[in-house]
Specification:
Radius of gyration: 15 Å
Distance between the termini: 22 Å
Order of helices and strands: HHEEEHEEEH
Structural class: alpha+beta
Mean pLDDT: 96
Helix content: 25-40%
Bound molecules: methionine sulfoxide
Number of helices: 4
Strand content: 25-35%
Length: 165
């Protein structure tokens, strides 16, 4: 049994440090990317409060051989399966290779609403050898839920996962 439980009194930075350590321990030595993404989505759900969706989109190809984002393991309601690179918050992160911290999803041009409850969103790219291979997407029902501390913490997680998903 794995029993990774965050201490509720931790500040955000320390909470993410513990999340990254737990993710590192759970994925170390496991070559299956789906297993690793599934466990990390569950860990994020345990460690990060006030979320309604947490999970992965991977860069894959469509029938025409064009790159796009494809839904990966997640916790939350069923979501959009395929997102063009450059579309929505996830597509913007994949295209730019940069973290997208969105305080109000309704104000983000082209935001893709998979769950009408989502009000704010944080998307961090996962890169390998300089190329974006996936994004980690967090949604919250609370407006302006995510801070720079969340962004830095999730980026540290993306770094650990780079070669494991
Ligand atoms: N809102 C995202 C789509 C994915 S869902 O939030 C799970 C976007 O605009 O890219």
């Amino acid at each position: 049994m794995y029993d990774f439980k965050p201490d509720q009194t931790l500040d955000t930075a320390e909470r993410y440090r513990q999340l990254v350590d737990a993710a590192d321990a759970l994925t170390s030595g496991e070559p299956d990317p789906v297993a690793n993404m599934a466990n990390v989505a569950a860990l994020i759900w345990e460690f990060v409060p006030d979320l309604n969706w947490a999970g992965f989109y991977r860069v894959g190809t469509n029938a025409e051989g064009v790159d796009e984002l494809v839904l990966g393991p997640f916790v939350g309601r069923p979501a959009c399966i395929r997102i063009p690179i450059g579309a929505g918050v996830c597509g913007a992160a994949a295209k730019s290779g940069e973290t997208q911290l969105v305080e109000d999803v309704h104000a983000f041009p082209g935001h893709i609403a998979c769950d009408a409850a989502s009000r704010s969103e944080l998307v961090v790219p996962v890169s390998r050898e300089g190329k974006v291979v996936a994004v980690i997407d967090l949604d919250s029902p609370n407006p302006a839920r995510f801070t720079e501390a969340d962004a830095r913490g999730l980026e540290a997680l993306a770094e650990v996962l780079s070669a494991r998903i």
